[in-house]
Amino acid sequence: MSFTVSEAAQAKIKKLVEECKKHSGEYIAKGNPPWATTYSEAFSEAATEICRIYILEGYRDPAFALYRLFKTEGVQSCRMTSFDYDRTEYFFNRHVAWRLRGDACQPPFP
């Protein structure tokens, strides 16, 4: 089964992908050691908006949709590699899911 979104949603996603590309790759948060790369807030916010669009368009697995989109568009992870499914699922669970739920801040690492 293929999944399609409306033309308006496609246009929004296209802009958000460009935002993700602009902020993808290595990012070191203030106070982190140089080896501790993560995802910038701008990258995470744009990815969250993409997932929100997918959810509003009726897609039940936004993490998988994000994986396919990032893979197709060549968006890089914080380690300067492509997003495979495991990496995308980790990113979604750690940086997107709590934003979609409306939590005030990121939960601590286990």
Number of helical segments? 4
Strand content: under 5%
- Average predicted confidence as pLDDT: 88
* Morphology call: globular
Distance between the amino and carboxyl termini: 36 Å
How would you characterize this protein structure?
The structure is a single chain. By secondary structure, the protein is mainly alpha-helical. Helix content is 55%, strand content 0%. It is built from 4 helices and no strands. It has helices at residues 7-22, 41-56, 62-73, 85-101. The longest helix has 17 residues, at 85-101. The termini are far apart. The model has no long low-confidence stretch (mean pLDDT 88).
Brief descriptors of the model:
110 residues; mainly alpha; 4 helices
Provide the fold topology:
Blueprint: H1 7-22, H2 41-56, H3 62-73, H4 85-101
Summarize the structure.
By secondary structure, this protein is mainly alpha-helical.
